[in-house]
Design goal:
The complex is a heterodimer of chains A (249) and B (398). Chain A is an alpha/beta fold and 249 residues long. In chain A, 39% of the residues lie in helices and 26% in strands. Chain A has a 6-stranded mixed beta sheet with strand order 6-7-8-3-9-10, with helices on both faces. In chain A, strands 2-1-4-5 form a 4-stranded antiparallel beta sheet. In chain A, β1 and β2 form a beta hairpin. In chain A, α5 crosses α6 and α6 runs parallel beside α7. Chain A is globular and about 55 Å long. The relative contact order of chain A is 0.18. Chain B starts with a helix and ends with a helix. Chain B folds into 2 domains: 181 residues, no CATH class; 188 residues, no CATH class. Chain B contains 12 helices and 11 strands. In chain B, strands 1, 2, 3, 4, 5, 6, 7, 8, 9, 10 and 11 form an 11-stranded mixed beta sheet that branches. Chain B has 398 residues and is α+β, with helices and mostly antiparallel strands. The chains are: A alpha/beta (249), B alpha+beta (398). The interface between A and B is medium-sized, with 32 and 25 residues.
């Protein structure tokens, strides 16, 4: 695993910083973060509110741009992309699962899952095939014609995950994916992540302060005040649990 | 799901709002199309009338003496047309024209307006104009005398005048008064559709000499001439001018052809139509602003949706197209609805007024182009604003 990691990093960031505001009142959201995430890793990014998790997530997701440092995705420099390039790269390589269940309410589950592929100009037959496969993978193929309003929160979140993985992304970014769910649905969703990770080998980064997530991740990166304060592989579920407890102040 | 379906879905989802937004365009397009169509109808009507009356009609009117009498005379619509010019045209001018025996001149008739009231003895006067005319007048104007003739101290009544004076009783042989002079009805005209400057149904016609005696005048108000054919009009004008110049060396007359009048009337109608359509266009502008307003609201309402779409790989262009499609859809719905209503209104008004007004291809094309244009122009700003959103934060908050 370690060798693989060294040869094949999906995310590589080096001394990354992000500041907001004018000179006098500069807010340092990120203060020189270096991190490498390999393919087939499942990482939990944890930390209290204001620690810089979201900022890092936005930069990783190409929604935002770092003000300093380097960000490479699949070995390619992302720091100087135009908005159009960002959007196209995002569409092809990165998938998102959000805290709120961000399905488009007036599209069926299947149409929701097909949407990112239609933005990526995937031919419609292939789109349909990938979408159905993703829904099957998450065990919700029978929900394909339902609308978001006709599903439970856990089901909807699984549709959202299916949507994220259907195009076959290299990186899946999940922002508090269990935040809006009860414990039981949350566990189901995390199990889905784990299975996906094992079957498809997609790299998953989960931003959270939910200790439950930590229990399912393979590695926990802790942020505090814009800096990385801990980066531990999880061998023992208990360690993860206690760590996440510690991170949640 | 394609862009159009998304836009339709959104428009349908907010039916009431979409309708109210489109209403601005409906009213604007309705006004523009109705006015241009009616204007077109009026032009067509005028055209038909002139063709019916005869494109071979030439009118000689009195004018101020011409200093450079060799100069070209366009006459109608000129400054002098508004001046109150004493007439110098006489019945002998008419006679001279009729006796020229020139092939291009078919016949000429003098016309004089008698400023008096027409009534039955012991009755109130009716609203009718009274003209003194030569007998040729009727054939030149293609009027048919249904019964009787124009002669002596007789009078020929237009169909409406006859009905007003004598109801359904026979007017023939009855007495009428012009001012205080008594005349006998010797003829009734067949009912004829009116044309610009001539409404025979509402007119009573006297023999020219009777009318001259009655009004104490020596001159006629105008002379009408018919050319042998529409193609010979300009030749006829030349001949008539030569004859009249000989009799009126100071060139104190002018010659107008019905074709000149037609083109003047048509161009006037067109100017008025365009002007009104321009005013109606303001309604369209206001409608467009309404669309822009609603689209801006839609964009801020759908902040999250835009965020999701961008997170799923939508480019700025995809978002712009999506919102533009929606605003164009709204304006085109408005345009189509407005055009349908305009078609109905034009038809109804045309029927009521009696002009052949219908939707013209031109006005429908104008409506389509305008409504698409309005949708694009007023949709661009909201669409660009939508595309520029950085929705990362919006996606986090619930």
């Amino acid at each position: 695993m370690a060798i693989e990691a060294a040869t094949n990093p999906v995310i590589q960031i080096d001394n990354l910083s992000r500041t907001y505001g004018p000179d006098e009142a500069t807010v340092h959201a990120l203060r020189g973060i270096s991190l490498s995430i390999n393919s087939q890793e499942m990482v939990a990014l944890m930390g209290p509110s204001g620690s810089g998790k979201t900022t890092l997530m936005n930069i990783l997701g190409l929604f935002d741009r770092a003000t300093g440092g380097l960000y490479r995705l699949n070995g390619q420099d992302m720091t100087h992309l135009s908005r159009r390039q960002q959007a196209s790269y995002r569409g092809r390589h990165i998938a998102f699962v959000f805290q709120g269940i961000h399905l488009l309410p007036r599209l069926s589950a299947l149409a929701n899952v097909e949407l990112p592929m239609s933005y990526a100009r995937t031919p419609s037959a292939q789109r349909r095939r990938s979408a159905l496969r993703a829904l099957e993978l998450l065990g919700i193929a029978h929900l394909k014609d339902r609308y978001p309003g006709q599903m439970s929160g856990g089901q909807a979140q699984r549709v959202a995950i299916a949507r994220a993985i259907a195009p076959g992304p290299d990186l899946l970014l999940a922002d508090e994916p269990t935040g809006a769910l009860d414990r039981k649905s949350g566990t189901l969703v995390l199990q889905a992540f784990q299975e996906l990770h094992e079957t498809t080998g997609v790299s998953i980064v989960i931003v959270t302060h939910d200790p439950l997530v930590g229990q399912h991740a393979k590695r926990i990166v802790s942020l505090e005040d814009g800096q990385i304060v801990g980066d531990d592989p999880v061998r023992d579920r208990l360690v993860a649990f206690s760590h996440s407890r510690g991170g949640q102040s | 799901m394609n862009t159009f379906a998304i836009a339709w879905d959104s428009v349908w989802h907010h039916r009431t709002r979409s309708f109210l937004t489109a209403l601005g365009i409906i009213i604007g397009v309705f006004a523009v199309v109705t006015l241009t169509s009616l204007g077109g109808g009026v032009q067509k009507y005028v055209n038909q009338k002139f063709v019916g009356v005869g494109a071979n009609l030439i009118t000689v009117m009195p004018a101020l003496p011409h200093i450079h009498s060799k100069g070209h005379h366009s006459g109608f619509g000129g400054r002098k047309a508004f001046a109150n010019v004493p007439s110098t045209l006489t019945p002998s001018d008419v006679k001279a024209l009729n006796h020229s025996r020139h092939a291009v001149l078919r016949s000429a008739a003098g016309v004089i307006t008698v400023p008096s009231l027409l009534s039955r003895p012991n009755h109130h006067p009716v609203s009718a104009s009274i003209s003194g005319v030569s007998l040729q007048f009727f054939s030149i104007q293609s009027l048919k005398i249904k019964t009787g003739t124009l002669a002596g101290r007789g009078i020929v009544l237009g169909s409406t005048v006859a009905k007003e004076l004598f109801n359904h009783h026979s007017a023939l042989g009855q007495h009428v008064l012009i001012g205080k002079t008594q005349l006998i009805v010797t003829g009734i005209l067949r009912s004829t559709p009116s044309s610009p400057g001539l409404n025979p149904n509402d007119t009573a016609y006297l023999p020219l000499n009777t009318a001259l005696a009655l009004s104490g005048q020596k001159t006629v108000s105008q002379i009408i001439i018919s050319a042998s054919s529409a193609q010979n009009v300009s030749a006829a004008v030349t001949v008539a001018r030569r004859i009249l110049m000989f009799r009126h060396p100071s060139h104190n007359f002018k010659i107008i052809t019905s074709q000149q009048i037609l083109s003047t009337v048509i161009s006037t109608t067109r100017v008025i139509t365009d002007f009104l359509a321009g005013i109606a266009g303001i309604a369209l502008l206001v409608g467009g602003i309404g669309i822009m307003n609603i689209m801006l609201v839609t964009v801020s309402e759908r902040f999250r949706e835009i965020g999701i779409r961008k997170a799923l790989g939508a480019r700025d262009g995809d978002i712009v197209i999506q919102f533009l499609t929606e605003s164009v859809l709204l304006s085109v719905i408005g345009g189509i609805t407005g055009t349908i209503f305009a078609g109905i209104a034009t038809h109804v008004v045309g029927k009521l007024v009696g002009i052949p007004a219908n939707l013209t291809l031109g006005s429908v094309l104008t409506a389509v182009v305008f409504s698409i244009g309005v949708g694009v122009i007023f949709g661009v700003l909201p669409a660009i604003r939508a595309a520029r959103l950085m929705p990362a934060e919006a996606l986090r908050s619930d």
